[in-house]
Amino acid sequence: MDKRAKSVSNERASEGENNISEIIENLEESEDEDDIEGDDNFEVEDEFDSTYLKEKTVSGATAIWEHYKPRLLTNGARVAYLCSPNPAIIAHSEANKDPLNNIALEEFIRRVILPRRRTISENPNVVLAKLVDKYWAERDDFVKRRGFFSSESIWITAGDPMTISYEWHKRYSLPATEVFGLSACLICSLVLGCG
Asked: What is the pLDDT of residue 6?
C-alpha cells in the first residue's frame, strides 16, 4: 500500500472508533432515561418486541416454506395425502382442495397404474381417463363412507395414529376397489417412503 492509502484507512478507522464511542454514549444515555421513566414502559416494549419477533419468525418460516414447497410437495406426497385413511387428513383434504392434486394423481396413474392395465390395442388416453374417473368415484365412496367403506369398524382403526396407511389399504380398500385401493397401496408403501 502506498502512504496515501494508509493515511486514508487510518482516518476511516479513527472515524469508526469515534462513531462507535458516540453510539455507546447514546445507548448509555437512553438507558438512563428508561430508568427514569420506570419499569412499566419496559414491559410494553417487551410485549411489542415479542410480538414483532413472532411475526418476523412466522413470515420467515412462510417464506422458507414457499421457497421449498415445490420440492417438498411431490406428486407422490400429494397422492398419498389424498389416500390417507386418517379421518382428520380426509377432512383436511376435502376442505382444502387443490387442483394440483388432480394433476399429480393423473400423472401417478399414467406412470404407475396405466402400464399395468393397458393392452397394446387400446388408446392410452381413453384408458387413462377411465382409470382417473374410476379413482375419483371410488375415493368419493371412501371419503363419504359409502358402500364397502360404510362399516364403522374399519374407521376405528383408521383413526388410530399408529395405523400404517399401506397396511390399512391392503386390508380394506384393495379388495373392495379397482383403482383407488391399488393406488393407495402403491403410493403409501414403504418403498416410496410414504408408509
From this structure: 46
Cα–Cα–Cα angle for 150, 155, 161, nearest 5°? 165
Q: Three-state DSSP class for 49? A: helix
Domain range list for the chain: 3-72, 79-187
pLDDT for position 48: 57
99: number of Cβ within 10 Å: 7
> Which cell is 87 given?
379421518
Percentage with pLDDT > 90 across the chain: 42
The DSSP secondary-structure symbol of 156 reads H
d(CA 37, CA 47): 17
Q: Which of 144, 147, 170, 146 is nearest to 157 (CA)?
A: 170
Residue-level pLDDT at 61: 86
Distance CA 171, CA 103 (A): 27
pTM of this structure: 0.64
CB 81 within 8 A of CB 105: no
